[in-house]
Specification:
Layout: H1 2-30, E1 33-38, E2 43-50, E3 55-62, H2 64-70, H3 75-97, E4 106-112, H4 116-133, E5 137-141, H5 142-148, H6 150-153, E6 160-165, E7 170-177, E8 180-186, H7 192-202, H8 216-224, H9 249-266, H10 277-305, E9 315-319, H11 326-339, E10 342-344, H12 348-351, H13 355-368, E11 401-402, H14 407-410, H15 417-421, H16 423-426
Parallel strand pairs: 1-4, 4-5, 6-9, 8-11, 9-10
Antiparallel strand pairs: 1-2, 2-3, 6-7, 7-8
Amino acid sequence: MFAYKASAQQGTRMFRAKILSKCAFRRKMSSRLVLGIETSCDETGAAVMDETGLILGESLHSQKEVHMKTGGIIPTVAQRLHRENIGRVVQEAMERSGVTQSQLSAVATTVKPGLALSLGIGLHFSLNFVKLHQKPFIPIHHMEAHALTVRMLQPVVFPFLVLLVSGGHSLLALARGIDDFLLLGQTLDEAPGDTMDKVARRLSLIKHPKCSMISGGQAIEILARDGDRLKFLFKPPMGAHYDCNFSFAGLRNQVTMSIQKKEEEEGVEQGTLLSCVNDIAAATQHTVASHIAKRTHRAILFCKAKDLLPSCNPTLVVSGGVASNQYIRKILKIVTDTTGLHLLCPPSKFCTDNGVMIAWNGVERLREGKGILSHTEEVNYEPKAPPGCEHNSRSEGGSYQTSTIKAEGYGLTFTYVHIHIIPTIYH
């Protein structure tokens, strides 16, 4: 009797699995499918997605271990690794999805911005792919894809404020549509992730037992938990500039000088772990976070003053690799709580570069019929391309604008108001 019940239950499970498999197959056949390919920096990613946002298959190859050994990304090495792995990564994503090339509705690929040699590998592969299988091609802006990833996970309506912070980028923008971004501010020199990575290298954190197998930014975050940020007081960047731009190079120089001073005091050579690494990590992380928070707060005030955000449930979306930093998220949460915004951050796995976010951006463009090219059209990659261009009222379409915000121009006092509202962040 028991054996009969077990057999019956097993049969029921197999029947249900077959039904679910058939339903999934029908869904694939009735839904438009997009293959997304990402090679803008040091991640080779691919994913297949249907137009509802369901991830059917994905694959990701990270180069981080290789670049950690060389102390940074070497473009020619990144190019070689992309070339060696892109075919396998795309094949894995396709096989895991159960989708054939003929079933694809389009291929979406990152073409800007990023490392030129890396972008070239993804674009070359994709153009050959679409020509071979005669599929439409959708060029994707890497930062726009980061900005819109959250819409794959939950319904977020336009417009909303976007903060993108990573190892290669830092910007604030108002997302008004899938291809319509008002650029409020961007980094004037280097990105926050790049700054923390360079500080970690200067501190030789790869020699630290807790940090030997993780990135520099992650090492800073981990060591900062046990550090005292008040032991090192770094001057906040751009204190006299009342706009929404970022700058991190000056902070890095301050940290470097402090490290040199401590090495002299402790009588050690460069490359030796200092006794105060936790404190330097904490102070660096706090100054980066405070700078990001101040600029974001100013952008929120500007958007509110100009009625650019909806009165009901205004949202700040934070994405990019640095958005995985929990300390930065915590400080931004204080800013949004204070200003009445809803803070949304994709899960960490979707904050870093991946094929899923490219496929999703392709899906959104496919739905609206925007930016879809024939497989016969030629496309070039663009290493430098913020999500927006300089404002030109005579430009065709006029979707993108660049706006520099100054307090004087809008009757707002940005300079010290945030110090009174949220003193715990900035002091």
